[in-house]
Amino acid sequence: MLKELDALEELDEETAEALRKAGIVTIDTLLATEVERLEAIGIARSVAQRILQEAWLHGNSMFSPKQGEDLIRQFKDRHYLTSGTQGLDRILGGNGFESQTVYELYGPEGAGKSTLLHQLICTASLPLKKGGLGAGSIYIDTEGTFSIRKVQQIASRFGIDPAEIARKVVRLTPPISKALVYVCKYLLNRVVGEVNARLFLLDSLATQFRAEYGTDPATLPERQQDADQVIQALKRMAQITNGVAVLTNHETVDFSGYGKPKKHALGYIVGHASQVRITVQPTPDYLTARVFAIEKAPDLAQESCFLDITPKGFKDLNAKESSKDNE
Asked: Which of 206, 219, 269, 274 is geometrically suited to a Cys-Cys bond with 224, CB 3.0 to 4.6 A?
């Protein structure tokens, strides 16, 4: 359970009010905020450093030091979000997307990445006992892909009231990459309470960075730094809310001749920042089939599954469940 700011003895009422107005309402959201940001909302650096020091040592914080039983309990407290398919849930460890984790989903245009995000909006609204998070979603839309009609189509498949699902999602549309950074770092914690969000979706990470920065090597450090800040902010929100973050990324072709010819966009910084990377690829012999494969994960095997994309989202492709099963 998130601990309120009132638990901090070093925090006076004036400072607490300034934090609340900025959307910083818990110890964990305070710890996810830089000193410079606290100064920008009118808190003196010495005061900011003092309250941050106390917050770091607070035992009930997500980010405070953990060991032994506390460390085990923190992992046991994680929840799982079903994808709505047995195949994808299986290769994700058996139960679906794990909370407190950032997932990167990449593949070519039209592979179905956005469709999966729309499906997760629906499954996230399901109660915990049905594989959901019992919560709403925030959809950060940089490509104009969000469709409430698609969400409602998929919702009916899961027995969710199509009229109700629209009330459980907030759509944010940052127009440029700098706005995307601001939204993720400073705005998410202010709108999360509007729908009790525990699912954070970004579609897509690469769009604005590739359009604005191009291939000029001189702009690479700034582009990489901003992209990393976006992912780190999503990761913090997933940790703070015990929720799930999923971002889509573009597929790019590597002509160097080293490694895989098709890779995720934005390079090694994004490669390190995402915790689990999944590729999604069309199949040449079945138009609506897609191959989902775990490319990188700290504790998952590199398995794959076949899913069928339909007007009501992804379903299991029973004819060929898993590439591993057919080796």
From this structure: 269
Given the candidates 3.30.470.20, 3.40.50.1580, 3.40.50.300, 3.40.50.9100, the CATH classification of the domain at 78-326 is 3.40.50.300
221: buried, middle or exposed (CB in 10 Å: 19+, 13-18, 0-12)? exposed
Q: φ, ψ for residue 215 (rounded to 5)? A: -115, 10
- Contact call for residues 112 and 286 (beta carbons, < 8 A): no
What pLDDT, in 10s, does the model give residues 35-81? Answer: 999 999 999 999 999 999 888 887 567 787 788 988 888 888 999 99
Structure tokens given for 36: 């410079």
Cα–Cα distance measured from residue 138 to residue 286, given in angstroms and rounded to the nearest whole number: 33
Burial track 292-306 (b if 16+ CB lie within 10 A, e otherwise) = bbbbbbeeeeebbbb
